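User: Please predict the structure of the protein below. I'd like the answer in structure-token form so I can feed it into my own downstream comparison script.

Assistant: Understood. Taking the following sequence of 185 residues as input:
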Amino acid sequence: MDSVLIICGTNRPDARTRIVAKYVEDYISDKYNMKVDYFDLQDLPDDIARSSMYKGDDMPEDLKNFQDEVLIPSKHIILVSPEYNGGLAGILKLFIDAISVRKLGPSFHFKKMLLIGVADGRAGNLRGMEHLTGILNHMKVVLYPTKLPLSSINSLLNEDKTQLSDESAKKAIHSVVDGFVDWSN
């Protein structure tokens, strides 16, 4: 594997998911000699939620550029997804729908993907990751068989809630990311 795309699956300001996604980005950048792209749904254009997006090419230009220049060339993706009401964030589903309307095959078919779930509760977004599994299987994404649920996320952060500090959580991330890198080669 020579590059990886990390997607932060929420647009929520101050999201704990972003802390985990950035930790994964830093870990890969420090350990592996590969290109790391990072895309945060917080950077989606405000006008993504419009009915005309279902016409495919009527997608906001920033999103078209991301799709053409970053997503389509990426063969390996790590998606860090928060739990929202026992499932995935609505903005993540909207993002997937918008991208797939325009260029489904080049964007998703046979891409290798790792799912990491983040939740304040006990299940680490297991339900959301299972929902994503169904969606992504339908879109012919090849999912890494191990999904990493990070539960009780607030207890895994430092006192300021700005960095991942729990050593067990860090080791779990290292293990699943290392496995994904090995599996993807």
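That's the full token string. The beta strands are 3-8, 35-40, 76-82, 112-118, 142-143, 148-150.
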